[in-house]
UniProtKB/TrEMBL annotation:
EC id: 3.2.1.4
Stored Gene3D superfamilies: 1.50.10.10
Family of this protein: Belongs to the glycosyl hydrolase 9 (cellulase E) family.
Protein name: Endoglucanase
């Protein structure tokens, strides 16, 4: 597959825009990255489903969804609500677990006192994924009917909507969500390898089985479960990237030659070079290329050289001043891609910039982009600029992380945060009774500390309003890569 070219304008134009973006600091203030790291991990406790543990720190949340899976005769309690609703979507949850694990693998040494909390955040997800994959040839991929859920505005503790359990199997395949689940389990097995060997082995054994199922029974879960998963987490990009992604993480976790051979054999068939500047719960292409490139840069995988070429192309497509139709920058310097919840792109792409910067540094390598090149230091500055924008270095001088700084979103699109807590209002709040809180102009009564919202639009404007969910809704997959970024910058401010 041909690599997308980097169309580079004049050298002086490129450097002038890069200099403007990365070196001028009209909004800059000093940031406490470790405090932001602590809060970004704390957010996951506010997203927990199931029976909460004694050490739960987000005290306004209570147990919820304690009978999940009962209608299917299985235990599917636990896991995370992915965003501001009360559904457990397995596809973004698995991606969240993968990125939290990658954050710890690459930057755990920079987390200091927060490492334990980061490990617990991963385990809350993987404990659930183990339940969801307990039966061979079956993966439970969602709990809750999204239409009845989205018809209500109620606390997770009060849920009386359908908690249907949706699964993929041999007759209704879902290689995308199964491939991502395998990746999550494999990545987490690396995280726990020395910390909890028995748990690590369990995760890796399950990852192998789930990947085999994903590969042997190919198909998109959006086709098998269309009415349940679309348009919410419909796989627009196809399942091929998740198969390569799962194989890449299994190779990293096992060092087995079969997975490397799988990657080489399927590189063209599974379209490894497609859409190189995308990375998120639906599209793994840039992540695959960056992950595999580490071995290439270490001189251990010449047969995978094309992945490093693709990774370089991805970097070129992100550089400010290089014309690329899919990656733009707001006037304030924020990466912007069309569609909702832009911060998911900001944090995921910035994580890859930082990870690749470290891989390049160790190999004493820079990225060639036409007439110029991008140094590891430049990639770090670009990633740091995005993090600083999130924390308040922006035209509105507003932090987009709840609870960080003096000014941050107060009316986030999040049911539990926007409704009175069970502590403050013990009585049941029904499906439609919550609507008045949704429509209220008042700030949310409960601070979901650490939540990063979808963020401002392409002109740096932000409506702090619940109905504007694309801008005001937080998600687990916005925060997961941010954990790694904040860990690094807390140690290298």
């Amino acid at each position: 597959m041909a690599r997308k070219s980097c169309n580079v304008p004049s050298l002086s134009l490129t450097f002038s825009i890069i200099s403007l973006l990365l070196h001028s600091t009209p909004f800059a203030v000093g940031h406490d990255y470790h405090d932001a790291l602590r809060k970004s991990i704390l957010f996951f406790e506010g997203q927990r489903s199931g029976k909460l543990p004694p050490d739960q720190r987000v005290r306004w949340r209570r147990d919820s969804a304690l009978h999940d899976g009962a209608t299917a005769g299985v235990d599917l309690t636990g896991g995370y609500y992915d965003a501001g609703d009360n559904i457990k979507f397995g596809f973004p949850m698995a991606f969240t677990a993968t990125l939290l694990s990658w954050s710890i693998i690459d930057f755990g040494r920079n987390m200091g006192s927060e490492l334990g909390n980061a490990l617990r955040a991963v385990k809350w997800a993987t404990d659930y994924l183990l339940k969801a994959t307990a039966v061979d040839g079956v993966v439970f991929v969602q709990v809750g009917d999204p239409y009845s859920d989205h018809n209500c505005w109620e606390r997770p503790e009060d849920m009386d909507t359908l908690r249907t359990a949706y699964k993929i199997d041999r007759d209704r395949p879902g290689s995308d969500v199964a491939g991502e689940t395998a990746a999550a389990l494999a990545a987490a097995s690396i995280v726990f390898r020395s910390r909890d060997p028995a748990y690590s082995s369990l995760l890796l054994d399950r990852a192998v089985k789930v990947f085999e199922f994903a590969d042997n029974h190919r198909g998109a879960y959006s086709s098998s479960l269309h009415s349940a998963v679309c348009p919410f987490y419909c796989d627009v990009n196809g399942y091929q990237d998740e198969l390569l992604w799962g194989a890449a993480w299994l190779h990293k976790a096992t060092r087995r030659r079969e997975y490397r051979e799988y990657i080489v054999r399927n590189e063209v068939v599974l379209r490894a070079g497609d859409t190189i500047n995308e990375f998120g719960w639906d599209n793994k292409h840039a992540g695959i290329n960056i992950l595999i490139s580490k071995e290439v840069l270490m001189g251990k995988a010449d047969d995978l050289k094309s992945f490093q070429i693709n990774a370089d192309g991805f970097i070129c497509s992100l550089l400010p001043g290089i014309s690329h139709p899919q990656v733009q920058y707001s006037p304030g310097g924020l990466i912007f891609k069309a569609g909702g919840s832009n911060m998911q792109h900001v944090t995921s792409l910035s994580f890859l910039l930082l990870a690749y910067s470290n891989y390049l540094s160790h190999a004493n390598h820079a990225v060639p982009c036409g007439e110029t090149s991008a140094s590891p230091a430049l990639l770090k500055r670009l990633a740091k600029h995005q993090v600083d924008y999130i924390l308040g270095d922006n035209p509105l001088k507003m932090s987009y992380m709840v609870g960080y700084g003096d000014r941050y979103p107060r009316r986030i699109h999040h049911r539990a945060s926007s409704l009175p807590s069970v502590v403050a209002h013990p009585a049941h709040i029904g499906c439609k009774a919550g609507s008045r809180y949704y429509l209220s102009p008042n700030p949310n009564p409960n601070l979901l500390v650490g939540a990063v919202v979808g963020g401002p639009n392409s002109t740096d404007a932000f409506p702090d309003s619940r109905p504007f969910f694309q801008e005001s809704e937080p998600t687990t997959y916005i925060n997961a890569p941010l954990v790694g970024l904040l860990a690094y910058f807390s140690a290298h401010p």
